[in-house]
Structures are given as C-alpha cells and as structure tokens.
Amino acid sequence: MGNNDDFYKEVLKFIPEDRVSRDEAVLYSYATDLSSPPGVATIPPVVVLPESVEEVRELLMAADRFRVPVVPSGRGANIAGLSVPHQEGEIVVDLRRMDRILEVNTDAAYAVVEPGVTHHQMSSMARAHGFIQHLPTATGGASTVANALMRPSGNLSAKWDPDPVISLEVVTPSGQVIRTGSASFGTAGWRARYTPFPDLTGLFACSYGTLGIVTKAAIKLHDRGEEERLLITKWNELPPVVDFIKLIIRRNVADSCTFWNWTWNMFHSLMHSRTEELPAVMMKEDQKTPPPGVPFGIASARLSGYREVVDAAEKTAIRLARERGGEYMPEDELKQVHPGSWEYLHSYFIQGIHPKPGEEATMRKAMWLPGWLINAEPKAILELEKFMWEFARKEAKPPYMFRILPFNHAREFFFAFVILIAGTLDKEKEYMLHLKSVYKTLYHELLKKYGAVMFRFRQDPSFLALTGPYGELLRQIKAIVDPNNIMHPGVNLF
Predict the structure, then answer these.
(1) 47-63 burial, b for 16+ CB within 10 Å, e for fewer?
(2) Structural domain boundaries enclosing 293
(3) Same domain (yes/no): 279, 412
(4) What number of helices (H) and strands (E) belong to the chain?
(5) Which end of the chain is more exposed for a tag (fewer CB within 10 A), N or C?
(6) What tens digit of pLDDT does each residue of 199-217 get?
(7) Model's pTM, two decimal places?
(8) pLDDT reading at 26 higher than 80
C-alpha cells in the first residue's frame, strides 16, 4: 500500500484503532452512493473517523506529509459522487462522530454545529427553540453542514437569503485552523458573515472538500411564526406556474413554493408508504400526460407569520393562482389523487420532520436516482422543460419526473429532472453507465443554449475553463491552500 501503510501507522498515534478501519466490508460501504453504478466503485484503502478539530488537524498534516489524498464525508448521504473516492489511494475522512450542536443563539438566530450533525437533529433543535432551519431536499440523515456548503435546493431559499451559512471553522492541509466572518475575531461571536475583510466563507462553499475540512459552521435559523400553513394549488402546465411562483415570492406572500409534476407526487406517496414497488401508473411511457383525474402537477406553498397575515396570504395566493389558470386543491382531494403526498409534504414543510437517519435507506431500497440539477433564469426554465422531456424520451426509460423551486427571491430557479430506476441494479448497469456518459456533455449544451448551470460539479476539468480568468484565479488559490493537491483530487475542480 506504500504511503498508506506508513500513513496508517502515523494516524494510530493520535486516533484510536477502533476509529481507523481497513476492513474490506467497511471500506466497500464508503465506495459508492446513489450516483454510482454497480461494479465501478473505487474502494478507499483507509477510513478514519475523527472526533475533534485537533484530530482533524493532525490527520490532515499527516496526509499532507505522506501525500495521501483525502475525501471528506459529512454523513455520506450524497447522490452526486461528492463524498466517495474517484481515484485509487484516496482515503475517506468520515466526520459523523463530530455531531454536536455547540451553540443555539436565539437572540441572533443562529446555531453553531459540527459537520456530523444531521438535518433531523438540526430540525428537532430548531423547532424546540421556536425556529425553523433551512429546509433542503436532502434526507434527515444527511449532514447539515455539508448540504449547506453545496448551496442546496433549499425550500426556504426563496423568500429569505438562499445561503444558510454565516461563519465557518476550517482546517487546511497545512494544519491551519481558520475561522471566517465575525468568528475570526474570537469574542465577536458567529453572527455575521461580512466584516471589514473579504468574505472567505464563500470560498469554501461549493468547493466540495477540495480546500480543507469544515469542522464547525454557524447556520441561520428562521422564526416559525404564530401560524404555519401549507397551501396546495393544481396546474395543467408549467408556464403559468412559473409566473405564479415569481409573484407570490417576490411580493412576500409565501415563504417558499415548489412545483412537483405528477410523477414526483407519485414518488412522494411511494416514499411515505415505505413500499418497495413502484406504482404501475408511474411506468407509463408518456410521462407528460397524467392519468384521468390527476393534474399535471401541484405547487406547494409554505405560509407563515401571524394568523391574520397567513389568512390574508392564503386568500391572495388562491386568487393569483386562479387568475393564471390554477386551482386551489383541498387536503382531501390531494389525499385522494396522491395518497401519502399530503402527509409527506405537510410533515416536511410544516412540521419540519426529516426522515430519521437510516429511514431513507428503507424508503429508497431498490431505487437509484440519477438526476440533472440545473440552475437558470425563470424564462429559461420553460425551455428547459421542453428540452428535458425530449431528452428523456430519447435517452431514458420511464419513469422520469421533475420539480422546480425558486432561489434568491425568484431571481433564479432550480430545476431538478430525475430518472428513477428500481429493481436489481446489476441488471441496469449498462443503462446507468450510459446515463453517466451523457452527463459529461449535457451540461455544456445546457449552458450554451439556455444559460443553465449544472448545480453539482461533474468530474470534468474543462468545466472550470469555461469561466476564463476567474477559473485561473481559483487555481492559484488552490495552489496556495493545498499545494500538494491532497484534498479530494478526484473531483478535479481546480
């Protein structure tokens, strides 16, 4: 194993053996996620589970000294290959044992957490203090910090600031422990991202573990309000929905609003029921046409605030929907059309309940979810819908589904187009490999035609070249922070 053997002996000097594994079965469990077709995994030689910033510091200095590449992993609940090795010899640093909520500041509305804290933990804590956290579409067992650093498809990012991160504590390969924002001053707390100095918090966001390991993060909390309500409207096509969402978000009628096409609502029901079999109706060849009595899709809007304000917001939203061809959908109707969908959406948006760690494995058993996650202007979303439907007809098998939600006060929209594969993955290996090969060229076409940016980085060094001098500056920063390129080199971000 070369340097890995020497590295392993060095690590055992400061981390107990029971948290440093070379067991084959354990290693294999870190080699794949839901983006990895069977039979193509890269198995790490070592997995290390640190419990403190001091252990992370010693670990990275040792890795840098022995030139051992490192893949940081928050909880490993990723669907884009960002927490698994991509090259031989890459070790995994699993941060799940660093799972403490260190501070809850109810005055300044933030919490300081370690990278192993799950969304389930975070949500439970926030609600206990009268707050609600940033609501990602990640599972309850996913890392709050890792998800926040990827600027995820958060369902509270429409009305409020789309970035839930305030300040960070980061360990670099040289062993430096740096804090960003107001936390850099020590006694100033973690309350502010911007100070008289340049913002370095954003440097580590969307860096996918290529610059260092985040050991602490301050995450924004939002007031729950006196009343919380879920409003459902139904629609027969996408264009008026986009207009509706822009209006209710930009005029502060709703906290957030997400559109789900009819197959995605069937998936909601599937997730809620915990079954392993896909509803037969989802296997229709024509995914654009729902069955009789089922709307093309629904928009779920979260409303909160004082009760009188929520009552008025609900009436306003219903009026705006009807003026654009949509209709209010009562709870009973949604339960009839999409059994389980109401329970799933209500528990998530109103109760803030994420699946507990481990539950997502049960819900997604025998499922594989390859997806195109695209960020674009509102007008481009309408063209992207047409493009992706035709693309799916050509390249994919049903079922396929999409959802859209606004970011940044509806200045931009997140478009998620997902292909759902169920059954024995070994039988679908060639199909999955084909889809992954398509990924490598698709985002170039989407960017050129629609100005749409793929939301999660796909291992392609040509992607950075598209940014010109900005990309060159990032390469220079990478060379300063990580001169030996030990941090997640398989991602090829820089």
Answers:
(1) bbbbbebebbbbbbbbb
(2) 227-454
(3) yes
(4) 16, 20
(5) N
(6) 999 999 888 899 999 999 9
(7) 0.88
(8) yes
